[in-house]
Amino acid sequence: MTDHGLLNLQWSQALADGFAAAGVRELVLSPGSRSTPLALAFLRQPLIRCHVILDERSAGFFALGRAKASGHPVALLCTSGSAPANWFPAVIEADQGALPLILLSADRPPELQGCGANQTIDQNRLFGCHVRAFHDPGAPHADLAPDYLHRLAARAVSESRWPLPGPVHLNLPFREPLLPASAQSCWPPAKKLSAIQVTPPQLHPDAAQIAAIAAVISGRPGIIVCGAADYPPAFAVTLSKLASQLNCPVFAEPLSNLRFGRMTPDALCVRYDTFLRQPDFVEAHRPQWVLRFGAFPVTRTLQSWLSESKGKDKDGCAAHSIVVTPDSRWPDPQHGVDTLLIADPAASCNALLANAPAPAPETWHRAFARAEQAAERLSLEFMHEESFEGALVAALLERLPAGHRFFCGNSMAIRDLDAFSGTGSKRLTFFGNRGASGIDGNIATAAGIAASGSTVALLGDLTCAHDIGALACVRDLDLVLVVINNAGGGIFDYLPQAALPAAEFERAWLTPQNIDFSAAARCFSLHYARSETLANFTTTLEHALAKGGATLIEVVIDRSVSVARHRAYWDAASILPS
Prior knowledge:
By secondary structure, the protein is α/β, with parallel strands linked by helices. It folds into 3 domains: 4-174, Thiamin diphosphate (ThDP)-binding fold, Pyr/PP domains (Rossmann fold, 3-Layer(aba) Sandwich); 207-375, Rossmann fold, CATH 3.40.50.1220; 382-574, Rossmann fold (3-Layer(aba) Sandwich), CATH 3.40.50. It has 21 helices and 18 strands. The strands form 3 sheets. A 6-stranded parallel sheet has the order 2-1-3-4-6-5, with helices on both faces. A 6-stranded parallel sheet has the order 9-8-7-10-11-12, with helices on both faces. Helix 1 packs across helix 5 (146-161) and helix 14 (389-399) packs across helix 15 (412-420). It is globular, with a radius of gyration of 26 Å. The mean pLDDT is 93.
């Protein structure tokens, strides 16, 4: 008679050993029964660090944060039934954000499918088009082939990394008994296997296409836009050289990680959300080409300017749009790309430099430098305002030590970071969930990042409320959660919904929550502080950073004052001298 328990042990250990050999070093485990053989195999594989998180939704986003911080595939494991469905929001974010996750869902065997067996659903291809690949190797059987499992693990890791990073799903059924009667005595030892060599190629730019791009940009006024991306290490240096050669500004978003400590500051433009609100400047400085790297810009002001640049100017010319992407996606939401270069960003910059394109006229870059300086002077006038998130962002970044990690939530938080972070020489690393740009799972993602070291997260009150159960992941980490409590979804004050009748607007869009954040922090054993002034916030933040550990700082913002200060700032920006 087949000993299913022993087969489960041998099969699970072979798969865990295969993932260790393929380079997986972390697994996030949610407890359950059907996944027991695999859970034990990973817990007993010395090369893999296991994080145990009760809630699968939090576990999914924690793994996402680990993948962001490490740059390596991270595995997830859970039991059968609705458990893996709780991963779905994180899977979507990993898909859109191109992050490598290995999804290991335990399952009931085929004979228990479709017959009313408890905790059994159809898990095959559960995540549809949101995964790079799906594998169902079947339940463990007597003809166990460890080499097949080793190579299945290597294949899954490879598929999660290239040609487009993202999640890969393995659905893994087990028959009972899940373990033999004496699991301790017959447990197969973990093995250190030789790695199966899988090396993804570097995408070198096509020489003819590079020459054509160089001809388009040579001697003409243009701009470089860098959105969110995990750029290769050499990118910042070679981009600085290219911008200098072309005499053009680089519009770098915070999540490009070019603003702090990586790029030549002379080339950077980071206050474009301010000076692009000035109509005379916009009209007088239309680029003839746009070279874009990374994700599409966050800020509507920059989006609109890029769209308008595609329209013909008074001389009948429209900007030539060039997009560089290292993967198979089509990054053109405005449907205006003229040249798509599929190549490594750093290699593309080097290739363009080798073609020695002529610089733009001297006045071109000088005009953007003056606009940047004027915008900086204006922002300084607002940096002591109360209930103004721009001042809060600046104060927070000023006090972060070099080397710190910064996770930014969505909605208004990322937009205020973009508009008011400025730039600096100390190196900071920024993260955000901009794949699908949701407010779900932000605390868990920040916790995953903080498992690599000291981190600060800036979140809105609804974002925090949406993921409040993930505070259970935070207690043992060096993570400061700065929660802006402006009594609801403040971003809607700037959207057309704000014109709706006040009662409807508040009930269905602002949705203010009566959450006691101090009680939530206490429930999960976090330190807590409340700030109602900018001075108190800076003092509280400095104390939290010096103390270390997990702290939730609630910053109370008067939303009506905040809206008024934002609009006053934008009004002042619109009349800046061009």
